């Protein structure tokens, strides 16, 4: 029996591996660059990492006349990587189609430099990220790599990264070597946030001229921006093509005091950013939304057609977090649900059981009408959860009211005393002369 069990286990593992490989092969990625041959040589490690993670696709020239993303109503690729420079988009691809690509739920990684074309600049703007003026670069006279930026201070060492386990699990152990243009995000943006910012001494300007003021300075400079659209499609915008290169992955930094800081964190950072952008991390899946009556008109009824006012009900949902090909129970203390009719009548925090089930018990409001459960969960770095379910609430039926209530006991007493008095007076006149 033991050999048979071992063979069965081996067969199951092989089947799982084949299924995983098949799933990975379904992910098609297109890499666009000004010079495909040069990108294959200079960014081979990054491209190899995509292949190792199960993606298959092509590297094409961004200005190719035969370039297309769509054939009739079918998208030819699931993911898109653009190393953008000065060349314009070619073929049937334009900014409008790229926006449509993202609106259809596909993901995009866009890396640009200071000479980025107006089309890619407009694309970034459509996604909520503004690219600084052409010819400008991020400069830092205090935090720079002395080996490559001793002259222009444009090879900055950035350590101001986003504090999110969904984006950067465990954070970074070393600074990121960055040479590129600055980005900016609207302060009130609901979809975009910075994955990497400039240090307090950084500013954006020209490296070949003196500068007395800067449009972007300090942490207001975004070096890498992440965008999660309302349809949960993701976009990563980096202001540097060089930061994803093999040379940057293997570089060792030296500070302005000529102290060797060791190897920079570009490879780990870029891998984490690409995994987030391609929805390999920070993805939440909600399922098994349920609500039942705990006590009231129909105790134990699951997803009843309607509630009665003042019923005690339980709401529950299962949430799992998917990362690196595996899903596990999600744990959080800030998931809330609302019972809404125009405005929320009930808002409460869900408690979890460490197995992915979030639940709470609430009392139905003393107001009837058409309500709906609303679970709208938005947390930095995680995909959005938006769940709604309509449930009417009815008043008491005429035969459901209590026959005797405590507040009416004085009235009951007065009626009984009046009846007793009437009987006593009647008996008196009937039985006395």
Automatic annotation (TrEMBL):
GO terms for biological process: protein N-linked glycosylation via asparagine. The keyword Cytoplasm does not apply. Pathway: Protein modification; protein glycosylation. It is a single-pass type I membrane protein. Residues 1-21 form the signal peptide. Residues 302-432 form the OST48 middle domain. The keyword tRNA processing does not apply. One of its GO terms (cellular component) is oligosaccharyltransferase complex. GO terms for molecular function: transferase activity. It is found in: Endoplasmic reticulum membrane; Membrane. Subunit of the oligosaccharyl transferase (OST) complex that catalyzes the initial transfer of a defined glycan (Glc(3)Man(9)GlcNAc(2) in eukaryotes) from the lipid carrier dolichol-pyrophosphate to an asparagine residue within an Asn-X-Ser/Thr consensus motif in nascent polypeptide chains, the first step in protein N-glycosylation. N-glycosylation occurs cotranslationally and the complex associates with the Sec61 complex at the channel-forming translocon complex that mediates protein translocation across the endoplasmic reticulum (ER). This is Dolichyl-diphosphooligosaccharide--protein glycosyltransferase 48 kDa subunit. It comes from Chlorella sorokiniana.
């Amino acid at each position: 029996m033991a050999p048979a069990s071992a063979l069965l286990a081996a067969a199951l593992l092989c089947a799982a591996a084949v299924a995983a490989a098949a799933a990975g092969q379904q992910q098609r990625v297109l890499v666009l660059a000004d010079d495909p041959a040069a990108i294959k040589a200079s960014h081979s490690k990054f491209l190899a990492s995509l292949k190792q993670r199960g993606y298959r696709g092509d590297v094409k020239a961004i200005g190719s006349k035969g370039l297309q993303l769509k054939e009739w109503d079918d998208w030819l690729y699931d993911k898109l990587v653009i190393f953008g420079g000065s060349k314009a988009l070619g073929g049937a691809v334009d900014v409008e189609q790229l926006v449509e690509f993202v609106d259809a739920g596909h993901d995009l990684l866009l890396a640009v430099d200071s000479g980025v074309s107006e089309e890619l600049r407009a694309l970034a703007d459509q996604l909520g990220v503004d690219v600084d003026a052409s010819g400008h670069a991020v400069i830092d006279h205090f935090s720079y790599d002395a080996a490559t930026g001793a002259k222009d201070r444009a090879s900055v060492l950035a350590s101001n990264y986003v504090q999110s386990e969904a984006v950067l699990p465990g954070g970074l152990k070393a600074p990121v070597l960055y040479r590129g243009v600055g980005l900016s995000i609207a302060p009130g943006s609901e979809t975009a946030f910075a994955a990497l910012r400039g240090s307090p001494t950084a500013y954006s300007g020209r490296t070949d001229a003196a500068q007395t003021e800067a449009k972007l300075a300090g942490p207001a400079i975004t070096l890498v921006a992440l965008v999660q659209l309302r349809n949960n499609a993701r976009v990563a915008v980096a202001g540097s093509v060089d930061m994803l290169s093999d040379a940057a992955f293997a570089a060792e930094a030296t500070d302005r005091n000529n102290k060797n800081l060791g190897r920079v964190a570009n490879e780990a950072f870029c891998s984490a950013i690409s995994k987030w952008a391609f929805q390999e991390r920070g993805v939440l899946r909600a399922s098994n939304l349920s609500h039942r009556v705990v006590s009231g008109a129909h105790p134990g009824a699951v997803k009843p057609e309607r509630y009665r006012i003042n019923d005690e009900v339980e709401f529950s949902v299962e949430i799992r977090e998917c990362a690196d090909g595996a899903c596990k129970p999600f744990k959080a203390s800030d998931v809330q649900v609302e019972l809404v009719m125009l405005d929320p009548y009930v808002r409460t925090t869900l408690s979890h059981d460490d197995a992915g089930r979030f639940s709470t018990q609430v009392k139905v409001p003393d107001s009837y009408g058409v309500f709906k459960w609303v679970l709208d969960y938005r947390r930095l770095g995680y995909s959005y959860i938006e769940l709604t379910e309509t449930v009417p609430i009815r008043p008491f039926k005429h035969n459901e009211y209590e026959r005797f209530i405590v507040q009416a006991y004085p009235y009951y007493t007065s009626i009984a005393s009046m009846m007793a008095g009437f009987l006593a007076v009647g008996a008196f006149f009937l039985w006395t002369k």
